[in-house]
Structures are given as structure tokens and as C-alpha cells.
Specification:
By secondary structure, the protein is α+β, with helices and mostly antiparallel strands. The protein is built from 7 helices and 10 strands. It has helices at about 15-20, 25-35, 45-50, 90-95, 115-125, 135-145, 195-200, and strands at about 5-10, 55-60, 60-70, 85-90, 100-110, 110-115, 130, 150-165, 175-190, 215-220. The longest helix is centred in the middle third of the chain and has 14 residues, at about 135-145.
Length: about 220
Amino acid sequence: MTLWLTRIVPSPNSREARRDLGGSDQGIRLHQRMLQMFPDGVEGPARAAFGVLFRAEESPRGPQILLQSRIEPDSSRLPDAYGNAETRSLDSLLSNLHKGMVVNYRCVASPVRKPGATSREAYKLPPVMALSGNSAVEWWERQSNASGLEPLHITAHPLATVRGQQGSKGPVAKQRVQHARTQFDGTARILDAELLREKLATGIGRGKAYGCGLLSIAPVQ
């Protein structure tokens, strides 16, 4: 399995980049922008076909976008002067993962729970409920275990909810997107390296098309 990681540092002078990173529909705009770097005409959803996961975050140098994919993206398909993009293979990182290794991690995810039919009827609950606080941390602990990780330290930081219309034309223009987000950072011990590789490739939780689910790890030095 080969995965590619692309780091995009948007130019503050790029109108397109400023628009993509601004507003509550940031995840929707970036979804469309990231897919521009991959071939057209694939069968089914392009995000799944190319294993695209991404997130926007703040770095010491300012905003950046991390993009992970199964094939190397073509950054020349971004708008002129959009920003600087660097791509590298994650093969070395993935091949060196082993049980017992301690890693730093980061993941912006959409923690939710789905109440059963009885509870929804009794308490008039929605089909999907966003989680926050200790409930979000407990959700992350379960997701980590299911990803082959034992969390040793967890910091949970709530982020703005992604909201907007799924598209601008046709039936999708009427479909609303809404994903509450939490950024999880910390350290963890690897329990199952093969399971972790799988989860690194497929992502965690809901909202993967809109900037959620990308799990990043780095060995603790």
C-alpha cells in the first residue's frame, strides 16, 4: 500500500485560497478544490476512488492544508499562484510501524452517536447526535482502539462546524452538509500495526469528504 501526503501552504495573495479557507463551508470548498488535482472520469465517487483525505489547520507558518491520497496528486491543476505544494511518499513511515511503538497523533474528526429507534421515539432525538466534551473523548478512545491504537494522552479541541450546501446545481444544491468537528491530539501506543495502516488509508468517522477523518501520526523521538 502506497500513500502520498501533500502539504499545501496557501498564498495569502490568492483570492481562491482565501475563499476556500474562509467561512463555515470551508470543508465543502476544499473538497472540490482537492479533487481538482486528480484525474477526471472515474467510476463512482472520486474521493473514495483516490483515497482522498484532507484537513486544513494552523501551523507556525500560518494556514496549511494536508492532503493524503493513494495516487500522487497533480498540484499543477491548482489555480495559478494558489500556494506552495510539496508531496512525499508515506511508504517509509508505514513500513516501520510496529506493535509497541509510541506515536504522536492528530485527527480532526466528527464524533457522533446514533440513538436507537426506541430512544429516538421516546426522547424525540435526531438520527445522529454530535458529541462534545467527555463524550467526544470517550468516542475517540473507542475509535483509537478500533484503529489499533492505545491512547496514552488525549487533548480534545472543538472546532467550528462545517455547514453548507453540498453543491450549487441540480438536486445536490438542496442537500445540506453539517458536521460538528473536534481536533484530537496526543500520544498513543500501537497495538496492531496492520489495522493502523488500514485506518490511516481509509480515515476515521464521518465527514471524510469535508475535511474530517485524516489521522496523522509520527513516531515519538
